[in-house]
Structure formats: C-alpha cells, structure tokens
Amino acid sequence: MSRNRKALFDSLLRSPRDDPVDSQDVERMPPRNIWRGYKILLAASLGLSPSQRIHLTNSPGNLSLTEEGFDIQWGTNVVGPYLFTKSLLPALLAGAAQSPDKKARVTGSDEPDQKLSADKRYAQSKFANVVLAKEFARRYSDKGLIAFSLNPGGIKTGLQRNLPGIFRALVNPLLYPAAMGALTHLWGATTAKAEDVNGKYLIPWARIGTPVPESQRPEVGEQLWNWLEEHTKEA
C-alpha cells in the first residue's frame, strides 16, 4: 500500500474521540454524511490496475438521519453500499475479465417509513439488501459479476449496546463470537461454484437459504434500483 493510501486509511479509522460510544450518545451524534464517507472509501480504492481482481463485501449495521435526509439505517445499510458498489463496478468488471474463472463477487448482509419502529426500519433495510443483490445479479451476471445477500447469523457486536439492559442480558448468551459472522461471507466469496450462489440468499453457516418470496420479484428489484438511481444521481 502506498504511503498516501495508508495515510487515507489511517485517517478513516482514527476515532475523533478516545472514549467508546455510549448508548446515550447515539441520539446526540451528528448526522452521517453518506456521500462523503463512501467517496473516501472509493478514493482509497483508486490505483487498482485493471488486472487486479477484487471482491466487494458490504456488511454495514448502524442504528437519526444522515445529512442527506435518509433514515440512518436505510442510508447505512442500503444507499451507501449501493453507491459504493456502483462506483467500483468498472474495477469489479475489469477484474472479472482478467480472472481465471471470469468472475468477481459482491456480497451484502441483509426510504423507510418513518412511522415504523427502529427494529422494523432495520428489517426493511435488510429486506432491501436481499432485493438489491438479486437485482445486481440480474443486471451484471453476464459480465462476470456474482452478487448475493446473506444472513451472517446472530453475532455479538456493538449493536447490542442499544438494547435495554435486561433484554441484552437475555440475548447475549444466544449470540456467537464476531469472527463467526465472517464465515458465510467467506464461503460465498470463495466457493468454486460461483454460479451456485449468484443472486442467492445465504444463511448460517455457509448454506443457501430461502428468502422472502417478495424479495425475488423482478419488479420489486427494478423499483428499488430506480429509486436508488434517482436519489444518488447528485452524489
């Protein structure tokens, strides 16, 4: 990694504060800027040569509004990964053309109605992940792009800090270590049978599951795609 790219990654990862985020801080946090954040990540990806094969894993999870006005979960889980993936399509497709199996892979771990509760808005954004993966597969599989969505499993992460204490105490023993959350991602991204996972919904651990039928309808995928195109054209 070049010195400039390393400095960019270091600045991205550096926290503006030393103390961990407390659950009471969530509502006081400033709005997130989706465009700026993903443009920084895109800048960090520049310098890839056409012969370099890359795979892309979108695995967000953030529990407010972004500066663009999106619900934070919709912006983090859907709009941002879509924009980042679309921006990297030239590199992904070029890498697929140069790779031995002519494939590159994109994964996504599964405008919300503001009247919905936070957990329902989260579920809605994850439903959109499944729809979007299917739509990417439909649009780009003939060019070597393999796209799938997945459920990483019940994983113990920082998201649980937002749960009420007693509920957190009940749930935590049922959760798996964070490292287990990568297992299905890795299987989908490295399995030799790329066509077997294209457009599919993967479940723990390293299996193909059955998604909600509504998420597989072409008209739903096209509607979501058109909405995202319209709302990211100024990015």
Notes on the protein architecture:
There is one protein chain. The protein has 235 residues and is an alpha/beta fold. The chain contains 9 helices and 5 strands; from the N terminus they run ααβααβαβαααββα. Helix 5 (118-140) links the parallel strand 2 (104-109) and strand 3 (145-150). Helix 1 packs antiparallel against helix 2, helix 2 runs parallel beside helix 3 (72-87) and helix 5 (118-140) packs across helix 9. The longest helix has 23 residues, at 118-140. It is globular and about 50 Å long.
Unreliable runs = 4-31, 111-115
Q: Percent of residues in helical segments?
A: 40-55%
Count the E strands. 5
Which H/E pattern describes the elements? HHEHHEHEHHHEEH
Q: What overall geometry do the principal axes of the alpha carbons give?
A: globular
Mean pLDDT: 76
Strand content: 5-15%
Largest sheet: 5 strands, mixed
Number of helices: 9
Kindly name the structural category: alpha/beta
Strand order of the largest sheet: 1-2-3-4-5
- Report how far apart the termini are: 27 Å
Rg to the nearest angstrom? 18 Å
